[in-house]
Tc1-like transposase DDE domain-containing protein
Amino acid sequence: MFHENRAKKLSVAERGSVVSLGLAGHSINQISRQLGCSRATVVLWKNRFSETEDVKRKEGSGRPKKTTAREDQRQMERGSIANTFVYDTSGRKTVPVWACFSSVAGAGPFLKINGRFVKEKYIEILEEELLPWVRQHYGEQQVHFVQDKSPIHTARIITQWFREHPQIELLPWPSKGADMNPIENVWSNIVKDFECRHARTADDVFNHARDNWIRHNERPNYWQILSNSMSKRLNLVVEAHGFWTKY
């Protein structure tokens, strides 16, 4: 049974995770369980970000700050969900994106999510971006599709959409298996390569991330190798009896 830690104080990275998970559609209870903090703490930082677009503590509260702005930014990057890129000097910019790839077609659509990422918006992406892209590169051939079990992905209208489009077969995925998705490797590469000095606006952040995404096409067999790693990833999970692996 999960017991929330009411006394836990969140690090900068964890506060960033509260915001990022909220933007991705996770509920307060889900965020609380994942971070091991109270629901009140989740609400506090969600509200703080809504009011100030920042996750800093109010001046004068808590212990004196011992980290630099650059160190805080690195923590925010590590604490963010996979599809959020963070920029922080005088302020904080978060840019949620959706993207996909395949071993055959390589880098697929890379889309900026404007506003909240809700199930209706995801349906638009599936209809207007994913389905045409699959048909362009695979014709009528059936393909397998991987996504985690965020509330948006498991909404009834989303699962119904996949049932109505059997060409895109949705693979079963464990509730806590997000890190097993090969796309996480790509997000990690993009974050590591991120150059904040070139980003002054949210659009700059998005453009840099998108250009980096496309540049992965220049690496020979990159997407194929990444896709082919799936069997190895899953075998390691079985060998570890469901516990952590190197991925």
